[in-house]
Amino acid sequence: MPLISSVCPGWVCYIEKTNGESVIPHLSKVRSPQQIMGSLLKRLYEVKKGESRDKVYHVTLMPCFDKKLEASREDFKNSDDKSQDVDCVLTPLELEEILNEEGVTLMDFEARKLDVLFDATYEFSEPLTSHIGSGSGGYAENLLLADCGRDRMDPAEVSENISYSITKNSDFLDINLKDSQKAGRFAIVNGFRNIQTVVQRLKRKALKYDYIEVMACPSGCLNGGAQCKPGYNQDQQTTVKSVGKIYNEVKKIPVTLDNSQTLVDKLIQELGLENEQQFGDLLTTQFHAVPKMQNLTVSW
Q1: Burial of 176 by CB count in 10 Å (0-12 exposed, 13-18 middle, 19+ buried)?
Q2: Rounded to the nearest 10 degrees, what angle do helices 9-18 and 192-203 cross at?
Q3: pTM here?
Q4: How many whole angstroms separate alpha carbon 297 and alpha carbon 283?
Q5: In whole angstroms, what is the distance from residue 218 CA to residue 147 CA?
Q6: First to last CA, the chain
Q7: In whole angstroms, what is the distance from residue 194 CA to residue 220 CA?
Q8: Structure confidence by residue, pLDDT tens digits, 45-93
Q9: Which of 45, 145, 181, 267 is 20 to 30 A (C-alpha) from 84?
């Protein structure tokens, strides 16, 4: 312990290059949502549509330039046809540039229902939904709820029952359920200033948490390096608050464990897999410490 999130490629890249041997054992081996979607999408097209992986071009929209690095990792390349699970990563800045070049805005397009390749028993009637928790994915909050057996709580009830305590600064938060005595220790840590603290405490075995959600950007993914920039005469902090306000207005749906085994069994069948082990291979990955270069001495 603790288990530490590995969905931020900036954080993962930093650890692999600087503190691999001491921190990598703590990283969650679960792939990021981007890479889970890539592996499932290409497998589903291969099985259901009869399309080979290299014939499917998969594009994601991410708030971070580092997601491009993540998508290009060798771990996410198919050994047979050398295709990547994610072929192209666009950022909000790049999408904005494309729209400007075409002379259109998103408001010019009609809303449409999402295409669904797999019946996950959810009704995607809304054009856009979100999860409870942080603007970086809500990992800490949702795992906290699952840990306490409270994952079926209504999103409004969750917001009333989860408390946030500033530990070091506003980007280093302890989170707890107000009405639960058995919850583990969970935290949200954003920004490299706080990441340094986490790494140092981990090395001293003084990091007393069960799970930590870590993101490289201050304020998390809502302040990602590739998000749209502040408008004229507007500072970054004001922009992040505005983005957070809009983000929190998106309808929230709970992430529950109900019927999870039934869903897993159905996915295994749809994906043409034999067992849960093969399914797990599509959802997990490995991390690698980068050997430090030795000083080179040159004789002239």
Answers
A1: middle
A2: 40
A3: 0.89
A4: 44
A5: 27
A6: 50
A7: 12
A8: 888 888 788 888 999 999 999 999 999 999 999 888 889 999 999 999 9
A9: 267
Closest CA to 246 of 111, 128, 143: 128
**Rounded to 10 degrees, what is the CA torsion of 237, 240, 241, 246?**
160
Burial of 110 (0-12, 13-18, 19+ CB in 10 A): exposed
Contact assessment for residue 268 and residue 282, using Cβ atoms and an 8 Å cutoff: no
Helix/strand/coil (H/E/C) assignment for every residue in 33-81: HHHHHHHHHHHHHHHHHCCCHHHCCCEEECCCCHHHHHHCCHHHECCCC
pLDDT tops 70 at residue 107 = yes
Question: What is the Cα 239 distance to its own chain's centre?
Answer: 22
Residue 295, pLDDT score: 56
Distances (CA, A) of 197 to 12, 185, 194: 16, 17, 5
* Confidence at residue 262, expressed as pLDDT on a 0 to 100 scale: 77
**Rounded Cα gap, residues 248 and 253, in angstroms:** 12
**CA-CA distances (angstroms) from residue 3 to 19, 68, 73, 227?**
16, 25, 22, 28
Q: How many residues does the chain have?
A: 300
**Higher pLDDT among residues 131 and 186, named by residue:** 186
Mean pLDDT across the chain, nearest whole number? 87
- β-pairing verdict for 186-190 and 211-215: parallel
Q: Per mean pLDDT, which range of 30-44, 67-81, 101-115, 274-288 is the poorest?
A: 101-115
Q: Which residues contact 32 (CB under 8 A, 6 or more apart)?
A: 6, 7, 9, 70
Three-state SS for 124?
coil
